Amino acid sequence: MTQAIDQIFVLTKHWLVGLVPVGAQPLCSAILSVAAIIIVFATLFAITTWLERKGLGRMQNRYGPNRVGPFGLLQPIADGVKSLTKEDIVPITADHAVHFLAPVLLVAASLMGYAVLPIGRNMVLVNLNAGVLYFFAVGSLMELAVFMAGWSSRSKYSLLGAMRAIAQMISYEVPLVLASIVVIMQAGSLSTVSIVNMQATYSGIWPHWFVFTPWGFAGFVLFMVAATAESNRSPFDLPEGESEIIAGYYTEYSGFKFALFFLGEYIGMFATSGMAITLFLGGWSAPFSFSFLTWIPSYFWFFAKLLALIMVFIWIRGTLPRLRMDQLMNLAWEFILPMTLLNLLTAGIWHFMPAGSLRWLVCGSMVVVPCILLSSRMKHKKKLQVRIYHYSE
Amino acid sequence: MIGEGILKGMAETARNFFGSYVSKDRLVTLQYPEQRDPQIEAARSFPFLVCDGGDWQQAMRCVACQICEKECPPKCIFIEKSKDKKPDANGKLQFYPAVFNIDISVCMSCQICAEVCPFDAIKMDVDHDLSSDDRFGGLLLNKQRLAKSNEYYNSIHPTEAAAVDARLAGERARQEAKAKAAAEAKSAAEAKLAAATPVQPAIGEPR
Ligand code: SF4
Ligand code: SF4
After folding, report:
1. Which of A13, A94, A382, B46 yields a CA-CA distance of 20 to 30 A from A286?
2. Which of B100, B122, B146 maximizes ligand 1 atoms within 8 Å of its Cβ, making it the mutation to test the pocket?
3. pLDDT of the residue at A72
4. ipTM greater than 0.95, yes or no?
C-alpha cells in the first residue's frame, strides 16, 4: 500500500503509456513527464509569489495581499490575468527576433535542469550518468538569455543590467560548481539518482545526508549563497537595482514577456534549490527513519525540503539590503572561492581518514578556521572613514 | 565572524514575522475602503464651486469673472460666461457661468484658483475617491458635479469656512449700511430737493 502511494505517479504514467501503440511510447512518456514537471513547477511558482508577498509583508508588519480570494490566495491568478492583458511594447530600435527569443530561452533553459532532478523514488525524467554536469551546463544557458535580453533591447539600462548580471552569474558559477564537487568526490558519481540513493541510507534513525559532515555543511552553505546570486535574488539582486538601472536587463520588457522573466527566474531558483536538496539534503529521502514515517511518499519529502528552502530565500530577502557591486565581487572571489577550494581538500582528507572523532575535529577545524581568518581579513580591509561633504555645509 | 550580523538581522525579521500574527498593534495598515483615517482639516484634493443654499444653479457664488481660468497653471478650467444676468443668492443681478468645467485629470491641486477668486466662489474639496472607468468624461467635472453647498464647505474646512463666512457677512453688512446710508442720503437729498423746489418758481416768478 505504502509502495503504491509512493509510486502512484510512476504507475499512472506506465499505465497511460501502455495505452498507446508501442512505436509512440517513448515520445508519449517524455511528453507526459515534461507536462507534469511544467505544471507542477509553474503552480509552485504561483504559490511562491503568494508566499513571498505574504511573508515579506508580515516581516514588514503589513498584511500582504488579502483582497483576492480567501487570504489573498487568488492573487497569482489576478497577477497572471493582469500581465496577460497588458500591452506588449517592443522598442522600435530593438532587435525584434532576439528580443522575443530571450524570455523564451530563459524559461526553456531554467526548465531543462529539471530533467535530472530526482523528485521522488524512481521519479526522474532521465537518469543521465553525467547528470550534475548536464544540470550546470544548461544552467549557464540562462546567462545567454539574460545577455540576449540586455543586448537586443537597445537601451543603456538593459545593457548595463545585462553586463552586471553576466559578471555576477559568471563569478558565482565557479563557486557553485566547486561547492558541489565535494559531493561528486564523495559519491564517486555524477548521476543525481545514485547521489540520492547513497544518502538515503540510515545509521540508527539518522540519515547519511552529506550536509551532516563538516565539508558537506560548508558546501551546502556556500552552494546556497552562490545559488542566491545565480538566481539574482536579494541580497544579490544588483542586475535589477531599481535606483540605478531601473529593472536591469528586462527594463524594456512588458506584459507577458516580463512575466516570463519572472517565471524563468523563479523556476531557475527552484531548480538550483532542488539541486542543493539532491546534493546535500538527501533528495527525496526522509529526515528520520522511523517505521511510522514510511507511509509518507518520497516526493512529499522533496517538496517539503524545497518549500523550506524557498522560505529561507524569502526570509533572507526580507532581511538583507542589496550589496554593492564591489562587495558582491569581493565576496565571490575573496571569500567564497577560497572556501570552496579549501573545502575540496577537506573532503579529500575526510575520505581518507578513518571514521571517528579525530576526523570530525580535523575536518571541522579545516572549515571553521579559514572561515574566521578570511572573514576577519575582509573586515580589516574595510576602511571606514568619516565622509566629508564639500558642498552641503 | 562573517554572518553574525546576518543572523541577528534574520532573528529580527523572524520576530516581526511571528509578532505580526500575535499582536495586532504591530500591523499599522488601514484596510482602506472599509476603514478610514479621520479627515485632516488642511487636506485638499480638487476644487469645487460653493453655493449659498437653495437651488444650485441660482445660488452659485461664481460670477464668471474668469480670473481663475486665467490663473490656473495647467489650464484645466474652462468657463463660458453667460450672455444674460440672473439674480444671485442676495438678489443682485450678476453674470453666471453658462459652462464651468474642471478637468481633474490635469488639475494639480495647487489651490491657486481658490486663492485668486475674489468672490470666495471656488474652494478646495477633500473628496479623493474619484477613480472612474471613463478616463475622459469621468474625470471632467461639469458645473453640476462641481456645485456643493456652503454647509458642505463648513463641514470639511470648518475654520477656513467660518472665516470666509464672517468676512462675507461683514462685507454684506457694510454694503447694506452703505446702501442704507446712500438711500438715506438720497432720500435726504430728495427731501431737500422737494422742500426747495416749490420755492424756485416763487423766486423766478417775479422776474
Ligand atoms: S470661480 Fe471665482 S475667480 Fe473663477 S470665475 Fe468664478 S468668481 Fe471668477
Ligand atoms: S487647483 Fe490649481 S490646477 Fe487645479 S483648477 Fe485650481 S488653479 Fe487649476
Report:
1. A13
2. B122
3. 83
4. no
